[in-house]
Write a sequence for this structure.
């Protein structure tokens, strides 16, 4: 059962502030909201964040790693066509490859799609070759990322919260 929670302007502001900086202290959120909207205690921020987590609106916080600084400069996307009878085995084997940082079950030409991070083309070739050798993998197709042009979930979040606030 999916629980539905109707956020208000304060919840939306808390979510926006945490989305911009997941490490912002609740005391700072309290101060900012008290200036921008209305007085709000640190305890209330804490309670609201817990409620937002309970309803799945906030799912933890994350740290963004600069893999380039660690020598990993190549991102590739790999479409994988696997035998449907072997799909669970294929997924389990893919989980063993540390360079695969995201894996999706998809529709279309491929039933699995993953994003890999590699040091260079040779490293990527080795990872893709390893994927191709997994029992049940019928075919792969790779695309090298040349440039990341958009990486901004804040735009989507702002749009969702703006629409949600106006319909509440």
């Amino acid at each position: 059962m999916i629980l539905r929670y109707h956020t208000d302007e304060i919840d939306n502001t808390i979510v926006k502030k945490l989305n911009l900086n997941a490490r912002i202290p609740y005391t700072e959120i309290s101060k900012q909201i008290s200036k921008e909207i209305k007085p709000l205690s640190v305890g209330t921020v804490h309670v609201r964040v817990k409620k937002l987590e309970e309803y799945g609106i906030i799912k933890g916080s994350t740290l963004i790693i600069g893999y380039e600084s660690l020598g990993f400069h190549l991102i590739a996307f790999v479409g994988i066509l696997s035998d449907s009878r072997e799909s669970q085995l294929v997924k389990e084997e893919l989980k063993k490859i540390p360079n695969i940082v995201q894996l999706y079950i998809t529709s279309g030409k491929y039933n699995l799609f993953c994003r890999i991070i590699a040091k260079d083309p040779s490293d990527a070739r080795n990872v893709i070759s390893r994927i191709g050798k997994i029992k049940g993998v019928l075919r792969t197709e790779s695309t090298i990322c040349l440039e990341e042009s958009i990486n901004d979930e804040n735009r989507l979040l702002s749009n969702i919260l703006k629409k949600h606030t106006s319909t509440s």
Summary: The helical segments are 9-20, 26-36, 42-54, 87-94, 121-132, 153-167. The longest helix spans residues 153-167.
